[in-house]
Hints:
The protein has helices at about 10-25, 35-55, 70-80, 90-95, 95-105, 140-150, 155-170; strands spanning about 120, 135-140. By secondary structure, it is mostly helical. The chain has a single domain, classed as yst0336 like fold (Orthogonal Bundle), CATH 1.10.3560.10. Strands 1-2 form a two-stranded antiparallel ribbon. The chain is globular.
Amino acid sequence: MASGSGLTSLGADGAMAAAHALSLPAEAYGNDPQLEMMWAMKAYQHAEIYFNLISSVDPKFLKLTKVDDKIYSAFRESFPDLHIQVLDPEKLKSAEAKEKWRPFCNQFDGVVEDFNYGTLLRLDCQKDYTEENTIFATRIQFFAIEIARNREGYNSAIFNSRKQSEEKERS
Length: 171
């Protein structure tokens, strides 16, 4: 991911104000475009950090939460046939999919911090975050899918690609 100005462009006071604003309950706001931009920047920053992490460390060794095993087991129990290498957005966003995802997500209320916050999720795990390859999902959906991608070896392509590039540069 190309690093942009992101939160640093806000300065220290702006970043503190953003952090405070993001900690308030959603009911405290209407559709404030400035708040939506802060959420988008936070989601982008999270995506950038995660992509750098799976590019630098073999994903099969990553632990994303304290309850990875529980998330993975519950995910594969609820979604045994969900193809995670390249996600079909309908399997996350359709009315039928939302009915299936809701009980899965809600079981992590109080278990995973900010389980229902919005985050960015790559559709094709072998590609970077781009406008075409990214959808908005809840944090627990992100954790469930990315833990599965890591454990099932799908995210290894990102790590191996970067490792090969670095080896070519050295030779």
